[in-house]
Amino acid sequence: MKKHLITLLTFCTVTLIFAQKMPKAIKVTYQRTSNGKIAENQDPMFLFASSDLSLITTNKILQQKANFPFEQTFVNFNTQTISQWAQMKNGKSILSNDNEALRKQKFEFSNETKKILNYNCKKAVTSVNSNKIEIWYTTELGLKGGPSVLGQNLGLVLETIRNGNATVTATKIENLKATPSLLSIPSIQTVDQLTYKDLLWKSRFVNIPVFSKEQIHFVSDAKSNDSILRFASGTVIVRKIKFPEIKRGSSIYADVTEQSNGDAYDRTGTVFMIPTDKKMSFLDGLKNGVKTLPAYENGNGKKYQGVVSTDEYTPLLEMMRFFTPFGVKQFNYLQLKNKVWQDSVIYRQDISLLQPKLSNQEVYIGMFIGNYDAGGHKASLNITIHQGEDNNPKADFILPLFNTLNVMEMAGQEYSTMFDNEKGLEMTFEVPQGYKNFKLSYTTTGHGGWENGDEFLQKKNTILIDNKEIFGFTPWRTDCGSYRLSNPASGNFGNGLSSSDESRSNWCPGTTTNPNLIDLGNLSPGKHTIRISIPLGKQEGNSSSAWNVSGFLIGEK
């Protein structure tokens, strides 16, 4: 009898201990550390888990204080399904299910053990995108879950370590008397995983479509409509765009996609804004003719229309300069062994410096691709805004100074040959009170497409402020051969090179040209002069060189 009583008491004790280790549901709080230091201002991560489901979320999400979009992750242990639930800024939610990812996880198991929150933990190791992930898990609570989807089938993950330095560790485990209502997958329409990722990504920024596959070509009867204005025989397109408020510190990008629609040559392209802050703008020249624009003269006998700022006129503010390749898409039938031509060229450039000129403004945005072909090119332009957190209302000062790129080339605007004398390009500008740390954004490319033309010769650009040289460099690109697969119609030479391989004066067929950001220091308030000097190559017959330079001044509050 005594023996049976001891056995019964032992069974009851084990049952009681087991019951204590099998709560109905738990809440686990995790903390992030990096290189041994606790991450500052972190949003605590929570895991809610029952025998059927786990939920990964954060404190801010539960408090409805998280920035949109935000995600929560469910794991259904009965169906072995991972469900991603995202809530968007517009109030919409999307859900995607993955029935394979949990089963596909592979681990190497170690004999190492350690205690976390007084629970015995085992170690498993896996690799994700070349990152080594160590997972410490326990089976003593009888429930599964973790701070990520990794290792949720192993047990309760109490710590993960990525590459030995980024750690997520459980700091608290709470037993819950009942399964919380939030441990329930939302009953909403699901989308496939690719669509889910795409919708989530696109919801993180503002996309402003400006042009969509618009034809930029040379025709005598180019027609405007209510949305898009066409000028210079169809080689210039312009549209009025309303920008939202853009916080300082935000990132702004211009994205252009281009294809040949008949033109086989490498052409100069530009995306620009038309300032309308003065009595006259470039838009007046587009509408009324290039000769109506103020002309710059430097004594060489020519008049250069609309290229420098005056008291009554502001030149084009260049946002991006790009160069079309030789006939991408339209001439892809020109086959070469082991060459798979690109379908289009995508240009993407950071234009965040222009935030003061775009934020909460309605402006004219234009695009030009020089060509004399009836098919021309097709191009799209999107501007994306990735909001920052800087609420400082003090905006930078931006003053467009000059732009010699002859956007109205096909309507008679003079090529930028003013650098054929010592004066080159010279103008006066005025610095207002209250600004410091001035910079010049300067974009330059050399042109003249024959053996002795400046396209293929290295020429120093010298920038002088108040007759003092403040910057000098030789703009040159040696990487043009990297873009051969975008140039199916490029000419080929007897020495085995393609024309698109040749090094050039700061550009390649199929690339953008980055602006140089030049420190000018603290310019004193008042008037100053700027001069651009370039040793322009001499004309040979009907061939002449030119330099397209644009620049705007930036000052900080």
Automatic annotation (TrEMBL):
SUPFAM superfamilies assigned: PHM/PNGase F
Locate the Peptide-N-glycosidase F N-terminal domain: which residues? 207-385
Q: Name one Pfam family in it.
A: PNGase_F-II_N
Name a GO molecular-function annotation.
Answer: oxidoreductase activity, acting on paired donors, with incorporation or reduction of molecular oxygen, reduced ascorbate as one donor, and incorporation of one atom of oxygen
Keyword annotations of the record? Disulfide bond
**Top-level taxon:** Bacteria
Question: Any idea what this protein is called?
Answer: Peptide-N-glycosidase
Q: Which organism is it from?
A: Flavobacterium gilvum
